[in-house]
Amino acid sequence: MFDLGWTELLLIGIVALIVVGPKDLPGMFRTLGRFTGKMKNMAREFQRAMNDAADEAGMKDVAKDLKSATSAKSMGLDKLNEAADKFEKWDPSKAVKREPGPATAAMTEERAEQAKKIRENAAKTAEARKAAEAAAAAPDAATADGAPKTAPVPDPAAPKPGPAAGDDSK
After folding, report:
1. Which residue in 4, 99, 105, 151 has the fewest CB atoms around it within 10 Å?
2. Is the Cα torsion angle 104, 107, 112, 113 positive or negative in sign?
C-alpha cells in the first residue's frame, strides 16, 4: 500500500522518538499496531462481503464463462501455438527422407529415359557440327574460279532434329 523502505521507516522512528519522547514511544507503537490490525480486519471483512455479494449475483458464473470463452483452448489457439513451436524447432537438415511410391518411381524411370534420349540426340548433333567444322577447316584445293572452298553454314531458322513424328516416348 505505502511504499516505505527501511530508510524511511528509520527516519520516521527517529522523528517519533524526538517528538513523542522515549517514555511514551512503546505505548504509541502499541496503539499504532492495534489500529493497523483493525484496518486489516476491516479490509478483510469488506473483501469477504464483496465476494459473497458477487456469488449471490452470479458473478462467479459470468466470470467463469468469460474465462472459458476467452481461453486459448476454446479458440483453438493452443493448437496454433503447438504448430508454431514445432515450426520453430524444425530443422530442415534433419528432415525425414521417405521412399518414393510406385507412381513416383515410374515417373522417375520415364524421366531418366527421356534425359538419356536428349543426351544422345545432343551428342549426335554435336558430332555432326564438329564434322562440319572440321570439313570447313580442312585445306581444300581452290575452286575453279580461284576462290577458296567453304563449307555450308547451317541455317539457325532450320528445324532441329528431334524425335520422329510417330515416336510416343515423351
Report:
1. 99
2. positive
Structural contact between residues 157 and 148, judged by C-beta atoms closer than 8 angstroms: no
Query: Has residue 148 got a pLDDT over 60?
Result: no
Residue 5 corresponds to which amino acid?
A: G
Cβ(127)–Cβ(121) under 8 Å? Answer: no
Alpha-carbon distance values, 36 to 23, 31, 39, 50 (Å): 22, 9, 5, 21
C-alpha cell at 21: 519522547
- Looking at the chain, which runs of residues are DSSP E strands? none
Q: How far apart are the first and last CA of the chain?
A: 84
When pLDDT is averaged across residues 126-150 and rounded to a whole number, the result is 72
CA 82 to chain centre: 12
Closest CA to 170 of 98, 116, 110: 110
- Residues 130-147, mean pLDDT to the nearest whole number: 69
- The set of cell numbers assigned to 117 is 534420349
* Confidence at 111, pLDDT banded by 50, 70, 90: very high
- Cα separation, 51 vs 62, in Å, equals 14
Q: Which cell goes with 12?
A: 520516521
CB-based contact 151:136 (threshold 8 Å): yes
